[in-house]
Every structure is written in C-alpha cells, then in structure tokens.
Amino acid sequence: MPRISAKIKKRSKASKMGNLAIDRFSKKPERGRPRKIQPSWVRGRADNYRYVFNQIWDRVGPHLLKSKTREDVLASFRETEIGGYALEFVRMADVMLQIVRDPDFPRKRREAQINFLADSLGGEGTVTPRSSRDICARERARIQSAHKIIRVEVWIECSCRYKGRSKNLACPKCEAEVPLNWNAGLDGSAIFNSFNT
C-alpha cells in the first residue's frame, strides 16, 4: 500500500508543476484602484488647453469668469474662433462652470487662471477637476525629476601627479578643481567649452 500512495503523490506533484506559467514573475498585479485614465494623457491634454486658452483668453476670459449658467459659458466662446476645440468646449461647458465657480479658482492673475482651468479640464470629466489638477502636478514633477546628471567625471592629469578620472570636476587626491571654459588637448581642440554642473 505505501508504494501506491507514493506514486499518487508523485503524479499530483507533477500535475501541479505542469500548470505553472513559464514567466510567473514578470508582471505583478497593480495595487489600489484601477486607473480611469492614463496620467500622461491628462497632462498632455492640459498642456494643449494651456496653449489654446493662452491664445484666446483675452476675448473669452472676462465673459467666462462672469458666467452663471451653462448657456453663459457657451456664449463666451461664440465670439471667438477656436477651431477644432469647439466641440470639446461645448461638451465640457458644465465642468467649466463648476471650475470657474470653485472657491480655489484664482481671481487676479491671468496665467494662474489659465493654468487652473486647463489642468482641471485635462481629465475631460473622466476624473474630477481636483483629481485632474493633482494628476497634472504629479506628472510634471515626475517628468522634471526623471533624469538628471548626478556626477561628472573628466580624465585629468594633475600637478600632484594624479592621472585618472576626476571626481565632481576636481582632483580626488588634492581636490584641485577643473577650471570651467577649459580648452586643452595636444592638437589644440577644445575638449569642452562651457560646463555647467
């Protein structure tokens, strides 16, 4: 009897191994709520709206800020040629009214008003205006901090007889700094002209 149970055990173990995927570890399930919209789309759309509103704000802005109803919002865009964005702005008239009536909406500076409205509309009503602004802020911060030079190394020959790579544009042995606008080389060519760290 023990031999039969051992065979059965081996067979069940083999069947479990056969069901495993070849690549189990490449994709982990995302944590939290699933996204309604891609953050890069929200930021890209908000950047487009910033450009468009910057072009038409002097004609649209005063009427839009005074609007009380959806029809007032639509009337503020009638006098202006906005091209392909006309249908988008008609669809989002209710959201625009909600954004302009927001207590946090800036009342004085033109650029702040444009940026607030554009970032709030970036989600196109898929997410709330507040979430859209937060997504835009996170995406811009991520892009700004994505890549930057951490350390610069240059091959140097120092008067202290050190030959090798510099550390942060200085000799690692005596800490003599590499001068900016440094031109050197056997043939007189410029290695680099202006180096900003």
Layout of strands and helices, then pairs:
Blueprint (H helix, E strand, L loop, with lengths): L1 H17 L20 H28 L3 H9 L7 H6 L1 H8 L9 H12 L7 H16 L10 E3 L5 E3 L32
Antiparallel strand pairs: 1-2
Helix pairs in contact: 2-3, 2-6, 2-7, 3-5, 5-6, 6-7
Description of the molecule:
This protein is mainly α and 197 residues long. The protein folds into 2 domains: 39-144, no CATH class; 149-181, no CATH class. It has helices spanning 2-18, 39-66, 70-78, 86-91, 93-100, 110-121, 129-144; strands at 155-157, 163-165. It has a two-stranded antiparallel ribbon with strand order 1-2. α2 (39-66) packs across α3 (70-78), α2 (39-66) packs across α7 and α6 packs across α7 (129-144). The chain starts with a helix and ends in a 32-residue tail after the last strand.
List low-confidence stretches: 184-197
Succession of helices and strands = HHHHHHHEE
The proportion of residues forming helix, as a percent range, comes to 40-55%
By DSSP (H or I, 4+ residues per run), the number of helices equals 7
Number of separate structural domains: 2
- N- and C-termini, Cα separation: 77 Å
What average pLDDT do the residues reach? 78
Strand content: under 5%
- The count of DSSP E runs of length 2 or more, i.e. the number of strands, is 2
Backbone CA Rg: 31 Å
Biggest β-sheet strands, sense, barrel:
2 strands, antiparallel
Describe what is shown at a glance.
The protein has 197 residues and is mainly α. 49% of the residues lie in helices and 3% in strands.
Features:
197 residues; mainly alpha; 2 strands
